Amino acid sequence: MPDFNNDLILITCASGKQSSALIPHLLKSFKKLRLQCNSSKSERMLSSKYPGVEVVQADMASPSDCHRILDGVTTCHLVDPPFHPHETQLGINMIDAAISQRFSSSGPFTHMIYSSVIFPHLRKLLNHDCKRYTEEYLIESGLNYTILQPTHMMEMLPLALLMSQKTPIYQAN
């Protein structure tokens, strides 16, 4: 059962499209969030937008940064930088750091949520294919996990607009 007052939730790629949509919902319940971003510009923007929330600039290509940002974390919502040339390795670095937190120390880490893509087994879509390897690594890690496989359509669906309409109609291009 989540402890909304004490659990520390890490959201990676916090200034990106997926995480930006998730953060306001988590802030309604959880008191402690840590937002990871890659650039100082994103760090300033997130700190300004979410005062009182911990924002950390970290490079997921650095195993030591991954360990640092996972320190004390209960649950990590892992979003890899899309189309990064080493996207698979970034995910593996985060999973390795989570394993270390969970099994090698008395850390509170309990769950990894990985935001993948629908049909990660499609090898011709290189950004999908790299997520397939991260999924496999997570499944074999021994961690408690959830793998989300959202579709591109879900990210672009204007849910608020549709929910506000008496008779919802989605105009597809």
Strand order, sheet with most strands: 3-2-1-4-5-6
State which percent range the strand residues make up.
Answer: 15-25%
Number of strands: 6
H-E order = EHEHEHEHEHEHH
- Rg to the nearest angstrom? 17 Å
Keywords: NADP
Protein name: NAD(P)-binding protein
Domain NmrA-like: 6-149
Organism: Aureobasidium pullulans EXF-150
Summarize the SSE layout with pairings.
Layout: E1 8-11, H1 17-27, E2 32-37, H2 40-49, E3 54-57, H3 63-70, E4 75-78, H4 87-103, E5 111-115, H5 126-139, E6 145-148, H6 152-156, H7 159-164
Parallel strand pairs: 1-2, 1-4, 2-3, 4-5, 5-6
Helix pairs in contact: 3-4, 4-5
Protein name: NAD(P)-binding protein
InterPro entries: NAD(P)-bd_dom_sf, NmrA-like, NmrA-like_oxidored
Family: Belongs to the NmrA-type oxidoreductase family.
